[in-house]
Amino acid sequence: MPSSKDGAGNEKLSEQLKHLLGALKIMPEIECLKGITHGIEKESLRVDQQGRIAMSPHPSGLGSPLTHDFITTDFSEALIEFITPVFTDPASSLEYLEDIHRFLYGQLEDKELLWTSSMPCIIEEDDLIPLAQYGTSNIGKLKTLYRRGLGHRYTRAMQTIAGIHYNFSLPDDFWQLLQKSQESKQTLNDYKTEQYFNLIRNFRRYSWLLIYLFGASPAICKSFIKDKTDHGLEAFDDYTYYMPFGTSLRMGDLGYTSDAQADLFVSYNSLDEYIDGMRNAIETPYAPYTEIDKLGSGYQQINSNILQIENEFYSTIRPKRISKNGERPIHSLKNSGVEYIEVRCLDLNPFLPIGIDETQINFLNTFLLFCLFRKSPPSSKEENSEIQNNFISVVTEGRNPELKLAQNNESVSLPAWAVEILQECLDVADLLDSTDKANSVSAYHNAVEEQLSKVNDSELTPSAKVLASMREQSMSYFPFALKQSENSAEFLQKKLSDEKIKNFNAVTKKSNHDREKIEQSDSLSFDEFLINSNKV
Prior knowledge:
Layout: H1 14-25, E1 37-47, E2 71-73, E3 79-83, H2 90-105, E4 113-114, H3 138-154, E5 164-169, H4 172-181, H5 188-206, H6 208-214, E6 219-221, E7 234-237, E8 240-242, H7 271-283, H8 287-290, E9 317-320, H9 329-336, E10 340-346, H10 358-373, H11 381-397, E11 404-407, E12 410-413, H12 414-434, H13 443-456, H14 462-472, H15 477-492, H16 498-521, H17 526-533
Helix pairs in contact: 1-12, 5-10, 6-11, 10-12, 10-13, 12-13
């Protein structure tokens, strides 16, 4: 039997959720949910034929990573980031993402590949990993300086880990409908912001489920940890370490973690509390980071505070707003509220050429609506600890049939809790399917059912499939990941239509022109620009 309380300490919400969904389902206006929008940001390392990080510059045929709309770089010159426009149709966003990949493969030289796994290829000398370069403008230099600071703080190797960020927003028509049903007197912007924070708090309570369902990095190349002995991993063979029940080592202690941020508490109870927490982290010096400034001549980081800028805050989800030129993210949020949310805990699926598929997108939309529709009481530091402990438990032991999670200070098995959540997601999926009256397809319902099958059989999860494939082929992590990358490259090297190539070339040309304009418009020295950039 499901528990009578959920992880936030509320009485079981199935009846409340069904009542809300039932009320929404009979409203003719609910078809506006077809206007849910999403965008995908997907990272991939460029590697040579031997699977080593490419040392070549960002391909010139891709234009300027500073100003290109769809193809940029993340930490390294070799870490490509693809950015889709905003779409309402998952098939369309995936087609566009695939097209960007195909365009890139037309620009790569020396038979370079895109690495299809989240954990990187062979890591040699850390300081040889090339930092991303963005030109001679002040903002371009600042972006590279930020990355130099990240390399000092967390190692460059850690920053080569790749993932997918999923941007999600709901149309104003829906927000107005929900606001009316709740008889809220707030302005629409204030209402949306409050509701997005409600969603974020619940997402953090339940995001461990995404790690179980979609985690795909249970093993790493031995070279990634070099001579470390306190990693807590087991030897898969002479060249690979792994965790037998692990799901996403990318999201654990080997990945996006920070001692400086370990005790950092940023509240998601309201926009004001969130901004206060972020501002505190950006303005608070961290003594060990002051030593970084002594590592060489010239600037080594933007500043020596806990966070150099907002983007350094490692979180599984972020409230977002498109910033005006030169405006800091927290100022954009403060001035105009939350526009969309960004999910940041998704591994690349190495069995998929572009790392994600339509079923996953349909489930993400369903899950995020589930997080919105559930009551979302304020969170505390104590609950935050419980959330973090659950998350790390699933990262390291998610497929262990004996694993227990903490639910409101009580112990509950992962499968039992996962089934409870997914059963409620089915109700949300049925609402979403009902908005497409022109078709009888149950895409959302089927997406949730597929996740239920993973709970019933953990061998169906991507993390289990990675290990099974390595065992079946008697392969270490490195040759397995290289083979998947080669398979994806073969699929993605099909040439684009002349029209699509023409369009991408036009964007590339414009990006170079825009970068030049920025460089020519600088009026401050970099020293002055950096001082201004540190003002919160």
